[in-house]
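Dear Dr. K.,

Following up on our conversation at the group meeting, I've run the structure prediction for Glycosyltransferase family 92 protein from Mytilus edulis. I'm pasting the input sequence below exactly as I used it, so you can double-check it against your construct before we proceed with anything downstream. Let me know if the numbering doesn't match what you have in your notebook.
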Amino acid sequence: MILLLHSRLQVEICLSQTGNQKYQIRNNSVNNLAVDNVLTLSRLQTEVLTIAPCHLSSETTQFSFQTVTENLFYVYTAYLDKRMNTTYVRIMSILLRGKKDNINVFCSFKGDNLIKVAANKYEMCENHNKKFGGWIMSCPIPENIPDPCDVTVSYTLNTEPSTKGNNVTLNIIPLESQNTKVQYTVCIPPLFGSVNSSRLIEFMEFTKYLGAEKFIFYTHGIQDEKSKIALEHYSNESLVTVIPWKLPDSIQEGHIWYHGQLIAHNDCLYRSMSLTDTLAIQDIDELIVPHDSTVFWDQSLTPLLSGNVKGLGIHSAFFDTSLQGDVLAISSIKRTKNFSRFRTKVLVKPSAIFEVGIHHVSKPLLEQYKIISPPTSKVLVTPLQVLPV
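The predicted structure tokens came back this morning:
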């Protein structure tokens, strides 16, 4: 039997083949092991419990939205957050916005007894009045259960107290910012449809050159085979983590903002806290380019993130890409005269941020933390898009 384990990962895959018998753990929870051959269950539980802790790794990729109640409430991931005096589990969620004042969310934790606590509901800032929106549910951890393995989510409705949905259990990912592995990581929100492989490779190679050491891609139905091959290549080099991103089937296109982009942004923010010191959130048609004496992020941007400055809101200047070529970043030399202070991109210390928006930092973790906009002579976002000059 072979156990493939990440740091602090309970069991992501357990796959063995002996003769014609195959055994596979399909659930990351020790308490809910599903095994093709039930005769191995006791032995597998003993092995797992003695070999690996119960928490998931931040690099675990196989997540999906779990339905608490259809057309009302869905949950995605749960993060153990010890950054404040009170420890919380932060749950990335989708909620029917019309019910936001009517719903009470609860978290249950397993200790000597089952302990149920009320969640604090926080609506993400850029839901754009869509039918469904992104939420962070924050559940305080009971003092006698300092490091829970999982959390079970349930709810009640004030106007329909007898209504009950599914009790959904999520395995927990701890936030361990003191153990980050790289200095700069880039998060790419959900990619979908036709993705130009040349643009994807150009983005990867230029951004690596500028200073990125790790990339986290959220993908939903990429159609271009060359782009899929490129992502697989970078994944094999351990440069890219690809997270399949699929919204619940009952949420129609247009009922949530831009394929759930905001929820992916914040899931990436929390996921990255254990992986990286600094996080950039951008699209593959954008480059964050220093314009001072160096083009490298660690030399140009790192000094800006000192003291209480925990993030940068970087302004954009659009470049004319009507000229065709395989490498647009080099061939595009004409840009707009004015800069966009609306279409900014953020670069942050993720461990100091509670929530990010699409073009700004919505909420630092502490009030004294600052987000600044560097002068355009220092750094610019370069969107490689065909726009008027």
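Two things stood out to me. The CA atoms of residues 133 and 345 lie 21 Å apart. The radius of gyration is 22 Å.

Best regards,
J.T.
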